[in-house]
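Retry 2 of 3 after timeout on previous attempt. Resubmitting structure tokens to design endpoint.
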């Protein structure tokens, strides 16, 4: 939902790039200063590779279009997050090393 209360439309296509088989742990963490909750997901080696391939594809598409493209995160079919992948900051997508940053760092 936008700040003015209007709903935005999000559509996803294709099969999920990372499924439960690609995760090793998921837990809720809280920012120490704001107490804002986030979900921290640890990926298996295969999950890391799949996530990198997805974000590389999305970043390269953004490089061709000239603006950030998005990756949707869904849990049990429910959309929980949409992240922008900045092609200028991450031209080769997010690897295990580049993805290990604070929330908001990928956009």
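Retry 2 succeeded. Sequence:
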């Amino acid at each position: 939902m936008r700040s003015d209360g209007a709903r935005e439309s999000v559509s996803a296509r294709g099969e999920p790039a990372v499924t439960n088989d690609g995760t090793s742990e998921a837990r809720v963490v809280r920012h120490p200063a704001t107490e804002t909750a986030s979900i921290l997901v640890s990926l298996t080696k295969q999950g890391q590779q799949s996530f990198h391939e997805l974000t590389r594809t999305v970043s390269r598409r953004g490089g061709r279009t000239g603006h950030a493209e998005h990756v949707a995160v869904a849990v049990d079919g429910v959309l929980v997050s949409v992240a922008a992948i900045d092609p200028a900051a991450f031209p080769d997508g997010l690897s295990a090393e580049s993805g290990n940053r604070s929330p908001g760092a990928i956009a």
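Attempt log closed. Residues 20-85 form one domain.
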